[in-house]
Amino acid sequence: MSSAQFRKRLTKHTIESVTANGRRFVILDSAIPGFGLTVSSTGAKSFILRYRPGRVGRSAPKRFVTIGRFGPVTPEQARKHAIEILGEVAKGKDPAAEYREDRETVTVADAAQQFMPTHVEHKCKRKTQELYRYAMEHKIIPAFGKRKLLQVSRIDVANFHHMLRRMHQDEKALDQKSLHAGSAAGRSDKKSPAARPGFFNSVSPTSYFAGVFFATKPSSGL
Questions:
Q1: Banded pLDDT at 83 (limits 50, 70, 90)
Q2: Is residue 61 domain-shared with residue 116, that is, in the same domain?
Q3: How many domains does one find in the chain?
Q4: Are both 112 and 86 inside the same structural domain?
Q5: Looking at the predicted structure, is the pLDDT value of residue 10 above 60?
Q6: Residue 203's domain spans which residues?
Q7: Which residues, 6 or more positions from 106, have their beta carbon under 8 angstroms from its beta carbon?
Q8: 207 and 128 assigned to the same domain
Q9: What is the pLDDT of residues 176-213, one digit of tens each?
């Protein structure tokens, strides 16, 4: 974690008053040990909890759990979750290790099932939801569905973006050719894909949504 740390009572007002300063820093809650808020260099804020598992004190390795981002998660919800995790730690458990084990068994298809209701259906407009659903069902899951989420690397995602870009360019060129052929023949083919509004952009959103999905790493727990 960053060495820049502060200690305050984490309330909605306190958190909203915090602004980015160009570097990552941590604000630790003054009431609950290990509970805090990370603030990125750009101002993104997430609740975290750090603890040492077991009963061996400072000789145990330090663990970090990301509870959630401020906004979707309130300070009260994050504080309650932190207390629950610390309760598990007091019983001798290691929640961070358990989350990590869960991550190692989650497939992309499993993560997609959680991603849609959690990150899309409650936050996006209907048209955006449809585009996300198309991207998942027709592009992302066929390409990665059976793979473990953590096994999908940045290179895999970059190659996927490149493939989508190539497909988009090929389809656009083909449909432009069909459109010109129809115009030359003096007719307008309403069934032609090129005649559908927004068709040329139908692959580009898929690439964007794939980036959002893999960056979010749903079901990661950390």
A1: very high
A2: no
A3: 2
A4: no
A5: yes
A6: 108-216
A7: 148, 149, 150, 219
A8: yes
A9: 666 666 555 555 444 443 333 333 334 455 666 666 67
CATH of the domain at 46: 3.30.160.390
Higher pLDDT, 184 or 147: 147
- Shared domain check, 90 and 125: no
Q: What is the mean pLDDT of the chain?
A: 77
| The model's pTM | 0.47
* Tokens 């032609």 belong to residue: 192
